[in-house]
Amino acid sequence: MFNFAVSLLKTLFSIIFKKRKDVIFTFFLLKKENEIMKRHLNLSGKKITSNHSDRFCLSLITALSKRAINHLTIVKPETLLEWQRRFIKKRWSFKHKKRGRKPVNAELKNLILEMKTDNPLWGCRRISDELKKLNIKIHHTTVNKIIQTFRKQGKIQSNGSWKKFLKTHWDSLYGMDFATIDTLLGKRFYLLIILELKSRRIIRYDLTENPCREFVKQRLELFAEGLLGEKTLIHDNALQFTSIEYSWFDIEGVNICTSAPNMNAYTERFIGSIRREALNHFLLFSEKQVRKIIKSYVDYYNHQRPHQGLDQIPAGRIVSSTGKIKKERILGGLHHNYYRSSA
């Protein structure tokens, strides 16, 4: 009987204590929510936000009393459980010391960049040795990694880059290529183009049905006679171009890489322009008609058409802001040239 009474009292006490505990924690939970809502009202209608202290208190209360979570109103229970998991994860996460070499500071990296830029022939070992003279000890492999990073960022250009070659020879660079033109009668003509890169002018062009080596040599001879000074001619790997000895004409021939038309981009661009802006808009029947269209377009391209690389001003033209604006038809009205008449 006594044992039964003791067990009954224990049961009643545990029930009362549990209910009391849930009531207490629910009270603290609602009190904390009330504080958060008061702070929210002072922020004039902005989104309800909770700081680190709020999240910790709410997570702690719900961890001690699982029933208190049913009284949450400002956040979802899933959100609260996620906060709790984050606290536990952060509690048992330890920061590990980084091992290995100390990172290279920005000042030294910039010095390596300056050395490589000023001395493009220097390798990583040469730069490492030069730094030792300044009492800066850094391994050549680290120097190499820094240089490769700068190279990927575009801060270091390859010593033999195509861009550098173009800048070095810009005043004497020309591009040469063939363009194919087909007529409705099934004939195919080949248009040879020699373009000056600096001014975007077509220096020489000619049309043929037989684009042989002798045809190219004759046009190169005429091209070389009309120009003085150095001449560097970029061309593709067509047999008509590669089989010619350019030194006979006092010309330096430069082959582009296979399947790399961008290395002769200016000439390729002209071929695209003459097709889009002229040839594609006509029904082509005869060689005479094709020659007439090409002549009109080349005159327009050389003297009147704006070029993006020349600030949209045709080569040799002087922009005037006075005089009456007039226009002239190009290619039967396909294009128009606008200009100011002289006063």
TrEMBL record:
GO molecular function: nucleic acid binding
SUPFAM superfamilies linked: Ribonuclease H-like
Gene3D superfamilies membership: Ribonuclease H-like superfamily/Ribonuclease H
GO biological process, one term: DNA integration
Domain Integrase catalytic: from-to ranges: 165-322
Cross-referenced InterPro entries: Integrase_cat-core (IPR001584), RNaseH-like_sf (IPR012337), RNaseH_sf (IPR036397), Transposase_IS3/IS150/IS904 (IPR050900)
One Pfam family recorded for the sequence: rve_3
Name of the protein in question: Integrase core domain-containing protein
